[in-house]
Amino acid sequence: MSLENLKTALPDYAKDIRLNLGSLATEPALSDEQRSGTFVASAIASRNPVVTEAIIAEFGPHLSPEALTAAKAAAAIMAMNNVYYRFTHLVGGDYPNMPAKLRMNVMARPGVDKATFELWSLAVSAINGCGMCMESHERAVRQHGLTAEQVQAAVRIAAVVHAVAATLDAEPSTFQRMAA
User: Fold this and answer.
1) Which of 112, 130, 153, 178 does the annotation list as catalytic?
2) How many domains does the chain have?
3) Full domain range(s) for residue 26
4) Is 38 a catalytic residue?
5) DSSP assignment, residue 29?
6) pLDDT tens sequence for the chain (180 residues)
7) What CATH number did the domain enclosing 42 receive?
8) Which one of 41, 72, 82, 147 has the fewest CB atoms closer than 10 angstroms to its CB?
9) Is 157 a catalytic residue?
10) Among residues 55, 56, 70, 133, which one is catalytic?
């Protein structure tokens, strides 16, 4: 499975998504590692096995084994953190002041530079809709010197990858053919 196969699988009503997917694959605002990892972490966060398989096949070879593991770790840790911190933010009360008591060691030693891991975490947080996490990770990447254009590029990748997954979820026959 490849990026081209994903683009071909998108129905005509999702032509804009197809075109955006193609142009973002070579997004110049991000380094190859930043772009590839953002695609991988976003695909995993979008929870569609066909999309995840195709994106990892396309972008995984552009990442070192450590960076590929870090992109997967960003999706994994944010799957947990986005639920927890979205809850504490929305419910309020005593919860924001209570210790999370959740292990998050990978954030201290992710296997790639901190700015890159934070960028991937930001993209996943955008997909998962955690405002508190988005604000925190956006602040961190900006403090590490990334530009607004780089942040926007990562979130655009997350948005388009998520749209590809949502579109394929709405087309069960296409999904079944691709999964076979």
Assistant:
1) 130
2) 1
3) 3-179
4) no
5) T
6) 789 999 999 999 999 999 999 999 999 999 999 999 999 999 999 999 999 999 999 999 999 999 999 999 999 999 999 999 999 999 999 999 999 999 999 988 999 999 999 999 999 999 999 999 999 999 999 999 999 999 999 999 999 999 999 999 998 766 555 555
7) 1.20.1290.10
8) 147
9) no
10) 133
